[in-house]
Each structure stands twice: as C-alpha cells, then as structure tokens.
Amino acid sequence: MIEIENLNIFQDNHQIFDNVNLKISSGEFIYLIGDTGSGKSSLLKSLYAEIKPKSGSIKVGEFEIQKIKDQDIPFLRRKIGIVFQDFQLLTDRNIYDNLKFVLEATGWNEKIKINTRINEVLNAVHLNGMKEKMPYELSGGEQQKAAIARALLNKPKIILADEPTGNLDPEKSIKIIQLLEEINLSGTTIVVATHDYEIMRKNKKRTIKCIDKKIVKIDPESL
Fold first, then answer.
1. Which of 67, 109, 128, 209 holds its CA 20 to 30 A away from the CA of 196?
2. For residues 90 and 149, what is the distance between their CA atoms, to the nearest angstrom?
3. Nearest Cα to 178, choosing from 134, 141, 130, 214?
4. Phi-psi label, residue 188: left if phi above 0, alpha if psi -120 to 50, beta otherwise
C-alpha cells in the first residue's frame, strides 16, 4: 500500500529525512512516533503530496509521489483520509453540511447518494442523530469522530491521523483509537502519528520512530 525507498526530504533547505526506507502493507495499523520536530508530520505530508521528496521514491497505491502531476493530486487525496489534531471542521455549518461540502467538492452531485453516504459514515463513527448539531455543540471526542467521518466519505484505502488524540482527555483518546481500530478491521490501512504512549501501551500495534533523520522499528512492549 505504501512503499518508501531511499527517501530524502528537505524543508527550507533543512534535511528532515536521509535515505529512509519503509513498507506498509494493505490493512496494517501503524503508530508513528518521535520527538517534536523529528519529522512525523512531514512524513505524513509527503504521503499526500503536500511535500515532494528531494530524491528517492514514495509510492502510495498506484501513485508515485515524486512523479505526480499537480492535476492528479486531488485524485490521490480521494484515496487517503486525513485526520488532524484540531478537527478542522467548518464552524459556520452543522455536521451534515460539513460532510456534504466535502462530497460536493469531490464530485458528488446526487442528493440521495450524498444523504445515504453521510448517514453511512456517521453510523460508522457512532454519531447517529448528530448531523444537525453545530461543531461547538459537540464534545472534543465527538468533533474528532465527525472529522473521522469526513475522512471516510470517499471510502479511502488509507487514513493518516496526525496526533488525533492530542486535544482529548485520556478516556476520549482511547475511544478514538478504538474507533480507528474498528475502521482498520474493514481493511483500511491506518497510520497514526502520536506522542501518546498510554494509548500505545493499551492498544499495541506495529510502531516506528522518527529519529536522527531516520525511521527505526520500535518494540511495542518497550513503550
């Protein structure tokens, strides 16, 4: 699903990664850890072509990031669901309209199909009955669930979650990880960048660490 070979990434002439190799199989659940500034977010951004590699290669599904044309990036991103720490919901509209906005922006135009898909994703994240709520009427955990619902809209093969529990208390954090595990069971590949070692101890998965411009494997039992 994701293949990285001999990857070098720079930002503002600063090298983030040096000759990195990584393979993530379809259906895996991966934790990506590392200190602040170690490159976790940069690596995720490289997977959806926000950052292009200086050299080496990144393959995400059938897309080769180092060769991708600008007009093809939206098609790549429809294959990837992205979840952010700060939810990034539109605050001027309810949850239904937040999701409808994304579907219409990605080419959906049949009202019945839009309504059906929104109901499907809200059901998947256990937010039944919440579609008329405004974001500010939801708890932090519920807002993150809505953000995950948004990421699921176009049936992505991969979900990239960048510190998805960073603004949540421990109880809500566990529920978000459990929700991602449910989604993973359906075959979706999940990559979670996090510094929350408590959730990693309770929900052990393959773990990789960004350190010294490299990526190294970490034994989950050592966390």
1. 128
2. 14
3. 141
4. beta
